[in-house]
Amino acid sequence: MKNKLIAANWKMNLDSEQSEQLFEQCAELAKCISPTLVICPPATYLQTGNKRLANSGAFLGAQNVNQNRAGAFTGELSANMLKDCGCKYVIVGHSERRAQFGENDELVAEKVKILLDNHLIPILCIGESETQRHLGLTDSFVTYQIDSALALVDESQIHKLVIAYEPIWAIGTNKTASITHIEQTMSTIVKHLINKYQQNVVDKSIHVLYGGSVSDKNCEAILSLDVVDGCLVGGASLDFNKFEKICRANVQPLATAQ
Ligand SMILES: O=C(CO)COP(=O)(O)O
């Protein structure tokens, strides 16, 4: 098993006082737990996060990046700016951005490329809709999303990559995917990555996370799966008590489903 990675996606929540307090709590937590923590606040709190998380072992992540290096892109942030703020990770291709901001596969691929070019670690989000799941298209869709998002980068650039499998129907709904669904889909993802990049690259450089209504109640079962290298947590990451329980989950290997 790899060391687990727990990433918090605060989305567009909290004010400066609340975020400062949560950064401080996460910094203390990071000092005494084994999973790697990545905190992705709104962009306006990145600089505070950089100060508060310093020397704690927790990493800072952004929720988005522009695919261009620099220029006349009002309202946007470049990979270089995020690096300047102390970011190490950046979420890309989140289903909320794909659905609400028109981010298509080509754009996601450009964003992955600019991140890797700048030695930032993409947290690439993939996942099927409820309709796709009902039609039995989950596996083909998530593998297609991986291939298209990684189309512009070559293997030598994959020093570190995070893939977050977030079924769209499980995000913010309290409808967590079943353990069987998570295990089957994530096994497909891992096998696909091994075919694409070889086992040792996947073992060494790629974390595959689950996201979608992860809570203090379901985290142990999810994190106990061998194919799950960690979680991307939305709502529950805003409540420190819940987030702490997720980060301290008692992870016991589960019997593998056939
Ligand atoms: O979208 C998510 C994380 O990126 C998941 O959000 P929830 O944990 O609130 O379902």
UniProtKB/TrEMBL annotation:
The active site is at H94, E166. It catalyses: D-glyceraldehyde 3-phosphate = dihydroxyacetone phosphate. PROSITE patterns: TIM_1 (PS00171), TIM_2 (PS51440). One of its GO terms (molecular function) is triose-phosphate isomerase activity. Its main location: cytoplasm. Keywords: Cytoplasm, Gluconeogenesis, Glycolysis, Isomerase, Plasmid. This is Triosephosphate isomerase. It comes from Catenovulum adriaticum.
